[in-house]
Amino acid sequence: MAVQTVTAPVLTESVNLVRPLRPRLKSAATALLRITPSSHHTNDLREQNSRNPACRLPEEILCKIFMFIASDEPERQSNGCSWVNVSYVCSNWRRIALGCQDLWGFIDFSHPRWTSVTLRRAKLIPLSIKAAVNNRNIIDLRRTLQLAHRIEEIHLKSSAQDIRPLLETLAHPNPALKSLIIDVDVVAGTSGNVYDPLSFPTTGPPLSNLKYLELRGTPFYLLSTRCSSLTYLHLRDLPRSERPARDRFLSMLEKLPDLQYLTLDRTFPIMPLDSVVPDTARRITLPHLRAITLTGSVQEVADTLNCLLLPPSTRLICALERLHDLKENIWKLTQAIAVHSWAAAEVMPVETLVITGREEETRYMKNNEPNPDFRQSLRIRAYRPDAECGGAAFDLTVGPDPGITRDAVMITTLGAVWKALAITHVHTVALQNVDIVTQKSWTQFLRALPSLRVLDISGHAPSGLLWALLLNARSHADGDSDAQRLLVPRLTDVYLHGVDCSSGGFMVSQTRNINSHTDLDDSRFLDVFSTCFKERGQFNVKLRSLSITRCEYVLKRIIDDLRTRIAHVVWDSRGVAKERDMDASNPARYRDLWISGRPPVKHYFRLQTVMQF
């Protein structure tokens, strides 16, 4: 039968549709095999299969489907469902599967029978070893890793106990190996040595084909001097006993001249006891590094960055998961960020900032007690205009830390990082669910954005930002009308998306907390917005456009007022409300911070009070 020709777009679309269905396809194939037809039904089944669209798919598509199924994740290969079953569904599937030689390079370790079948059919083609290590397949795995002619890919998932018999073999991999991923699940809280001391040499000829290495929970010695051609190195959750000293770690990185992507996820070298990196301390250069990802405490991230000299074009991605040492180490972190950011600004400055807030659970429980399960985090991303960057040039996530739930920590970190970044050329700021920053902090932040032209707001309403702009304009109202004295004088376009325009803001508290969640501003967000740009209009600083989409409680009266002062106003009718729909005694609305009931609150009609003076 002639094979139907399939164009590349159709093939790609079909593969993308099938990708999430890989487990279902394997299960369906197994279910079909459980039905053992009698001989007099065989012809009927063949006739039925000939009419089944799944059995008549073009060969190119079926080959792609089979390849996706065979390349499934290791943990899914351990459920006893072999991908080889696809070759027993119907005669057409079997013919195509047997003719797809590359398919049999994925050795199946779910059962010794399938291991033997796939190894025999693979012949001399490059092998891909993906398996969840257990006591049923460890002998076959060890034999295959030692004796196979050519292995190009290894991806093993294991416990610390099961991986031990394979460590010596993995330390001397096949010379043809291109990718090595070892994922070991080390029991949390394990103390002492997880692995025995190294008892065999790791020397040998360079592994010139090995480009990708990812180790999780493994001994550090699997990264040896033989891996000198690596371009991707990812180290995650190495046991404390396996982490190298700083000098040894830096010496190893120096032997990776082609490294382009480096990830240290809760895996950092052991620093000297003083934890201080003086100016004369050893630093190394990674000339081709394109991205570095660090996840850990403030001190761990700061000390690691201060050991490296990064090219200006390197993407810096950090996650501060533990903030207990913020006060002592934030200066070291911001110093490292500033050095890299200002060096990169000379090559290509940052043009877009995106700040995203996230909260898990509510702040308070019953009886208005603080909720111990409440978590919050803040993410700061800075983008350069180059499309080849592949993501944010700077990406910092602060939290969530189970021990830190105060807004003050988030705002302090944001302020320190803000000062370190070179953002004088930023023309767009996007705020997503950021409402904890107060007017005082926003005033300082906005002074660093003289080129800001576009403001994109979604989620929680940032009342502090609008109050900073409004009070800044009010403070100059009685003096000369010099627009250059205003914050962000070039702001021309504002986009509101999914904002509750009737929401009120938090007031500044006199206690240790930055915001008070019991002293609330009853001035509605859109009212403050309208007044703010009315005041700025006196300095001939006007908005060019305003877009309001999917927002709630947008009063028609305010929209009509804004249209008289803004050239282009666009909004949808979904959230438009009438004045009578608002509670006159308490016009502002507040998002659900409390599970049941609210504590006694003090409300301030701040806008009304300010405009009276």
From TrEMBL:
Gene3D superfamilies: Ribonuclease Inhibitor (3.80.10.10). SUPFAM superfamilies: L domain-like. InterPro entries: F-box_dom, LRR_dom_sf. Residues 55-109 form the F-box domain. It comes from the Eukaryota. This is F-box domain-containing protein.
